[in-house]
């Protein structure tokens, strides 16, 4: 079984390049099948989740041409099936974007219920509410969601809670519906804006993405285009925290600093020095970091996907920090693993109370989900001695060449496939 092996104590320095946004890519790849002309998507991150969606799109008949590692040309004119029961699609949350895309394009869709990381329940009631408001009938049977409509019609939809997935899914279906659709209390995340921008490049008429009211005027059809996905906000944030956690000095390239403001503010509050450029951000840390309090909120608040990484760095900060998780109820599953490394963390409901310790020590740990796995890698880089991170399949769902990029800025880390790899690594860095 593959695992990351890390020897802690190295200070990260140099430059690292951020990949395209995974969460935007998954929705945009689904959107691309809605046109009957080729759609070229650039800056696609080469991660497990995007490969699964591309395979699922092929399974239903779309033409998928790999131009290079990060560019795909997709043509949805050859789709012959609206049933997406591809074996692996159940494992990722973004499978439901194919529901909105196929419903909007063909008026019929049947997609396996979504999976993903076990960080909390992922209700699809808001998705169903939105589809029904557009005139679709929706049923769930045998682990499949079936949506059907002879004629989708624009509607006024209020989201009971802010939901990125439901906002995007309704947007996908509504852009080809008759008439006008208004989505109120819409999610404002950068990847919602990115999906809307891509759809507009394909001929959709969407206004207000990035605000809490999105207005969509239905069009008859979408056409081909070429579109480049935004940089990954969470990957950039993860490298920012890794630099700060190791007392490093790292220039993180291919970022949109505006998307990182909540993370930047907290790191500055803790004592980091941060410089922003047009498409890069530099993080320097050379003093003992201090405690802070964090509460996860929908964008532009502090992102839930950065909560585990920040908790790790706070585990060695001076004083006591309080981290409140308001999005996912199971997001503290990594705490037991972090405690094995010497952290002092007490979880009460949706709140973690973190008392800063002098240092972490290496241990055998397992990644419980994508972001927590990345956080444990950061913990390993902070720790004294060797850390062995199992279940790295979760990490590879959303980080492209994670170990390679970290090595490029000075981390002592390898992806080991066997005991021999581990021994050679330990010998080489001892």
Automatic annotation (TrEMBL):
Show where the Enolpyruvate transferase domain sits: 7-406
Pathway, according to UniProt?
Cell wall biogenesis; peptidoglycan biosynthesis
User: What InterPro entries does this protein's entry cite?
Assistant: Enolpyruvate_Tfrase_dom (IPR001986), Enolpyruvate_Tfrase_sf (IPR036968), MurA_subfamily (IPR050068), RNA3'P_cycl/enolpyr_Trfase_a/b (IPR013792), UDP_GlcNAc_COvinyl_MurA (IPR005750)
Q: Which GO terms describe its molecular function?
A: UDP-N-acetylglucosamine 1-carboxyvinyltransferase activity
Question: So what family is this one in?
Answer: Belongs to the EPSP synthase family. MurA subfamily.
The function of this protein is: Cell wall formation. Adds enolpyruvyl to UDP-N-acetylglucosamine.
Name of the top EC class for this enzyme: transferase
Q: Which NCBIfam families does the UniProt entry name for this protein?
A: murA (TIGR01072), PRK09369.1 (NF006873), PRK12830.1 (NF009470)
Q: Which GO terms describe its biological process?
A: cell division; cell wall organization; peptidoglycan biosynthetic process; regulation of cell shape; UDP-N-acetylgalactosamine biosynthetic process
HAMAP family this protein is in? Answer: MurA
Instruction: List 2-(S-cysteinyl)pyruvic acid O-phosphothioketal occurrences by residue.
Output: 117
What's any one GO cellular component for it?
Answer: cytoplasm
> What SUPFAM superfamilies does this protein map onto?
EPT/RTPC-like (SSF55205)
Cell cycle: present as a keyword of the record?
A: yes
Spell out the Pfam families in the cross-references. EPSP_synthase
The name of this protein is UDP-N-acetylglucosamine 1-carboxyvinyltransferase
* Positions annotated to bind phosphoenolpyruvate: 22-23
Where in or outside the cell it occurs: the entry states: Cytoplasm
Q: Which residues bind UDP-N-acetyl-alpha-D-glucosamine?
A: 93, 122-126, 305, 327
- What's its catalytic activity? phosphoenolpyruvate + UDP-N-acetyl-alpha-D-glucosamine = UDP-N-acetyl-3-O-(1-carboxyvinyl)-alpha-D-glucosamine + phosphate
Q: Which residues form the active site?
A: 117 (proton donor)
Which keywords describe this protein according to UniProt? Answer: Cell cycle, Cell division, Cell shape, Cell wall biogenesis/degradation, Cytoplasm, Peptidoglycan synthesis, Pyruvate, Transferase
Assigned EC number: 2.5.1.7
């Amino acid at each position: 079984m593959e695992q990351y092996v890390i020897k802690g104590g190295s200070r990260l320095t140099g430059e690292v390049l951020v990949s395209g946004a995974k969460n935007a890519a998954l929705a945009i790849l689904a959107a691309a099948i809605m046109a009957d002309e080729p759609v070229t998507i650039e800056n696609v991150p080469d991660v497990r989740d995007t490969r699964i969606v591309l395979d699922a799109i092929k399974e239903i008949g779309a033409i998928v041409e790999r131009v290079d590692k990060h560019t795909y040309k997709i043509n949805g004119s050859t789709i012959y099936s609206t049933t997406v029961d591809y074996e692996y699609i159940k494992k990722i949350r973004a499978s439901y974007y194919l529901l909105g895309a196929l419903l909007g394009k063909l008026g019929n869709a049947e997609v396996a219920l979504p999976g993903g990381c076990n960080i909390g329940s992922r209700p699809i009631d808001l998705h169903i509410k939105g589809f029904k408001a557009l005139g679709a009938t929706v049923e769930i049977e045998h682990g499949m969601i079936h949506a059907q409509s002879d004629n989708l019609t624009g509607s006024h939809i209020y989201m009971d809670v802010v939901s990125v997935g439901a906002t995007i899914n309704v947007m996908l279906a509504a852009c080809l519906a008759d008439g006008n659709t208004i989505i109120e209390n819409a999610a404002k995340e950068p990847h919602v804006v990115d999906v809307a921008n891509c759809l507009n490049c394909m001929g959709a008429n969407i206004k207000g993405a990035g605000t809490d009211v999105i207005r969509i005027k239905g069009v008859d059809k979408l056409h081909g285009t070429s579109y480049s996905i935004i940089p990954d906000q969470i990957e950039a944030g993860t490298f920012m925290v890794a630099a700060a956690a190791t007392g490093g000095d790292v220039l993180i390239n291919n970022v949109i600093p505006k998307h990182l403001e909540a993370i930047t503010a907290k790191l500055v509050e803790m004592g980091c020095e941060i410089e922003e450029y047009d498409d890069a951000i530099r993080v320097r840390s050379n003093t003992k970091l201090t405690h802070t309090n964090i509460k996860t909120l929908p964008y532009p608040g502090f992102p839930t996907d950065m909560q585990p990484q920040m908790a790790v760095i706070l585990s060695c900060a001076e004083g006591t920090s309080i981290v409140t998780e308001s999005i996912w109820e199971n997001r503290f599953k990594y705490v037991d693993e972090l405690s094995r490394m010497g952290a002092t963390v007490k979880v009460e409901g949706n709140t973690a109370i973190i008392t800063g310790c002098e240092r972490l020590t290496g241990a055998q740990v397992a990644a419980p989900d994508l972001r927590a796995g990345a956080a444990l890698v950061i913990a390993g880089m902070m720790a004294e001695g060797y850390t062995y991170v199992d279940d790295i399949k979760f990490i590879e769902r959303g980080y492209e060449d994670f170990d390679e990029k970290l090595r490029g800025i000075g981390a002592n880390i390898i992806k080991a496939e066997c005991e021999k790899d581990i021994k050679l690594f330990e010998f080489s860095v001892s």
